[in-house]
Amino acid sequence: xxxxxxxxxxLGASSGRVMLGYAGGGELSLREVYRFLNEPVRIGxxxxxxxxxxxxxxxxxxxxxxxxxxxRLAGVGVDSWAVDYGLLDATxxxxxxxxxxxxxxxxxMAERVGERLAPDELYAATGLQHLPFNTVFQLAAxxxxxQLAAxxRLLLxxxxxxxxxxxxxxxxxxxxxxxxxLDPRTRDWSERVxxxxxxxxxxxxxxxxxxxxxxxxxxEVLAETGLTxxxxxxxxxxxxxxxxxxxxxxxxxxxxxxxxxxxxxxxxELTAPVLTEESxxxxxxxxxxxxxxxxxxxxxxxxxxxxxxxxxxxAAGDPQELGPLLAAAARATPLRSVVDAxxxxxxAPGGMPERIAAACRRTGQPEPRDxxxxxxxxxxxxALAHRAAVADARRLSGLAVNTVHIVGGGAHNExxxxxxxxxxxxxxxxxxxxxxxxxxxxxxxxxxxxxRGGLGALRSLLRATQPLRHHEPSGDRTAWDRAAARxxxxxxx
Length: 493
Ligand code: ADP
Ligand code: LRH
What we know:
Helix content is 39%, strand content 20%. By secondary structure, the protein is α+β, with helices and mostly antiparallel strands. A hairpin with a 3-residue loop joins strand 15 (255-260) and strand 16 (264-270). Helix 2 (109-116) packs across helix 4 (135-142) and helix 13 (322-331) packs across helix 15 (371-397).
């Protein structure tokens, strides 16, 4: 093969994986060498990430990657979910387990921060949509804790993993943009926001750009993984969604993307942030992307809704298999009932089938009667939320979108992709499902000189090498208008 071997460590909220990619000489291939569940742990009333189990999964995955390549890797890159962090003491030791963004500790924190900096000023300065778990609100919740008092360093999750692999600390900028402490115009920290909300910016390691060198695997990591050094680690779009957007196989600029996994992140790629009051009210975010881009998008609950139902049914002794369940959902009555998949009421874990049923009752719609109807309600609701986000992104950015790309695990879900095409009234291109890993590998490979060019060139390599599925819009679009009206009490959506 012409390509050189790169490993992508991609930690999602539902699973972590180490993917081996060969890139260069016109080649781009990817295969999964190791996947492990990411199961949070509740202790003493606080929901934590099992960060050491995740690190072990990373090491085992790198060993597997080395097994496939005779111990040689041209590079490693790490991406993960956003906003969360670990704190280190003066010796570099981890202070406590990182807290999960779905933990309840941030309740009331937006109000507390709002007393110091009004929501409209915070938006104008950071461009970040209001999500209760943004890092600023987590830090407000941690204020006064002995851990924060002892902390000398704060590392976002992918930077923490990279630190353990290399001994070098940095703060990769795409993920830093999810802290709500960064100004998307300067792509640098906002001293003003940090001061106003009482965050000490010296906790953060220096900013890094995607493509920057991030050190080499430590001798102890080489020994544990059986890899032959030196193995460079490269900063990638360390926010998984930033890497996933690199991995969107778009032709040209007029596309919307939906990265669908645990979350659905739906929006467009821009060259400058949109910081208007209208944008704030529409709850659109300006996260930073690779190569100076802005990811202008909205968070939608995503397949979390279904994951939580599956977990609940299994715990109640009624385990459902995803394939047959989706087949039954495809046969269920379309748009029988829908919920607002953007509603933060669905963020916390637990009791999801009942919470979905309660939301249907509240809006005067029939409750789902079985798992198939619940799954159909979730998928119809996601498609409806995708449609609203794509329409708002077009309107607020002025970009004339003609195609919707669905990447992430949800790209496997043909029903969801077709419903999204139907709801948006636009053609949907589905795949790759592992867009984040591909984006991670492409940015490393480019830094190593194995591939060349801007995002357009990287995306044409994706189109030439990755299998994609096409969904044309079908059905009656007004049915979606009527369903949306049920959620807004008869108003327009
Ligand atoms: P994350 O990165 O947030 O952990 P993923 O991008 O891995 O999430 O997406 C996981 C979701 O993708 C699952 O919850 C599931 O709904 C969906 N998915 C994965 N594989 C399939 C499949 N073969 N068919 C249908 N859906 C799938
Ligand atoms: C998706 C994701 C998303 C964030 C959320 C916390 O994995 O990174 O972009 O909003 O996790």
